[in-house]
Amino acid sequence: MSLELAPITIDALRHHFKSVYKLNEEQINLVIASSSRSLLSAIKSFDEVDEDENIYEKIKAISHGMKGVLLNMGQHEWADFAREIEKAANAGESRDYKEMVRQLRKGVQDIFSISQL
After folding, report:
1. What total number of domains does the chain contain?
2. What's the predicted TM-score (pTM) here?
């Protein structure tokens, strides 16, 4: 994906979970923390993929899970980016997956601190 996507912000997530899911502040905090942990786990999983393993299958599975989390968070453009990674890996395409993951990491960086809640 050639577009530079805006980073995900906690304020945007708060608004999404309040307006779409009608959650109260306590629930919003829990869902944001859970989402943050899920995304952090996915990023770590990407980092742990070994070149000697079946990297395409692993990247496909990780990006599929990440896509689901991003959709639940209302982050459709980022979910589309994760879908692009998933499709490329499913097709066995030679891509700069490390760069793609770096872009994902940059986009979700702001919410990692909240995973400590």
Report:
1. 1
2. 0.89
